[in-house]
Amino acid sequence: MVTTPIPAEQVSAIREFNRFYTARLGLLRKRHLGGEFSLTEARIIYEIGAHPQVTASELCETLGLDPGYISRLLTTLTRRKLIRQVPSKSDAREKLLTLTVAGEESVERLNTQSDTQIHRILDGLGSAARDNLVAALGQAHRVLATPSNEVRILRLTRASSEAHEILEEYYEAVHVVQRDSPAALQSLLDDPVSGMWLATIDNEVAGCVVLRSLSAIPRAGECKRLYVRPSARGQHIATLLLNALEEHARNHQLDWIYLDTYDDLKPAITLYEHRGYDRCERYNDNPQATLFMRKRL
Does domain 151-296 have CATH number 2.30.42.10? Predict the structure, then answer.
C-alpha cells in the first residue's frame, strides 16, 4: 500500500512525547501502577466492575483482544478468586462475569493508586497549565479516534430517502415499537434545537443519530436512534456522531443530554458510560426502555 511520507520532524516529536509520558506515568513498569496486575488484567477487572455480568465475547470486542488470550486471563483471575463466572441462561456458550468481594477491593485499590499518580502529576502544574493539558489530551483523543477512511458527518435539514432507510434498518435491528412517522421526522428537523445526523463513507450512509428537544425538562435534549451499520463498525463512527450531536446541543445552550436504552445493548451502554453518561431515573414512557442515562454538557 502506498502511503504519504511522514516528515521526520513529526516522527521525532511523537517519539519524544512518547518517551516522556511513558517515563512520567510509569508505563514502562511491568505491573499496572506498580501494583499486582498487568495492564490487561487491570483493564479486565475495571470493565467487569463497571459492567457486571459482561461476557467474555463482549470483553473481546471492547478491549480488542484475542479470545484465547482473554480466556487465559479470566481463568487466572478466577483462580485468584477475583472474578466469578456463571453460565448464561440465555446462551450456554457464554459465562456472565462479576467481581468477587476481593475483586471489588482490588478495583478500589487501583482507583486510589491511579488518583494518587494523577494528583502527583498535576500538583506541579498551575491552573492554566492543567486546562491546557486537558484540552490537548482531548484534541489528541479526537484526532486518534477519527477513522482512516474519510467519514463525513452531515446534519439534515430535510428528510431524505437515505434517512428513512437507515432509520427503518435501526428499528428492525433493535425491534423498536415506537417509530417516527415521516411527518414527525420532518417536524423534528424543522426544530433548530433538534436534529438528525448521518455518517457517510465514500458517500454511502454508514450511521445515524437523532437529537430531540425534551420539553418536560428545561434546557435538555434526548439522544435517540444511534446506529452504525454492521459493515461500518469498528471505525469510531458512533463517537463521531455523538461528538456532532453534543456540540450542536452545547451551541444551543442545552445543559443536559438524556437517553434511554435496554440492558441487552451492552456495547452501547459501555460507549455511553465512557463518554460520561450516568444512570438516572426514568424520564419518559418508552415501554421498551429499561435503562436511563444523562450527561451534563
Answer: no
Rounded-to-integer distance, Cα 176 and Cα 170, Å: 8
Is the whole model's pTM more than 0.85, yes or no? no
pLDDT digits (tens, 9 = 90+) for 24-47: 555 545 566 566 788 888 889 988
Q: What is the CATH number of domain 8-124?
A: 1.10.10.10
Mind giving me the DSSP string for 155-170? E-SS--HHHHHHHHHH
Report the chain's terminal Cα–Cα distance, integer Å.
42
pLDDT tens across 210-260, in order?
Answer: 999 998 999 999 999 999 998 888 888 999 999 999 999 999 999 999 999
**Is 208 in a helix, a strand, or coil?**
strand
Q: How far is CA 258 from CA 93, 94, 135, 237, 246, in A?
A: 35, 31, 25, 20, 11
- Closest alpha carbon to 201 in 232, 228, 161, 239: 232
Domain ranges of the chain: 8-124, 151-296
User: CA–CA separation, 106 vs 121, rounded Å?
Assistant: 23
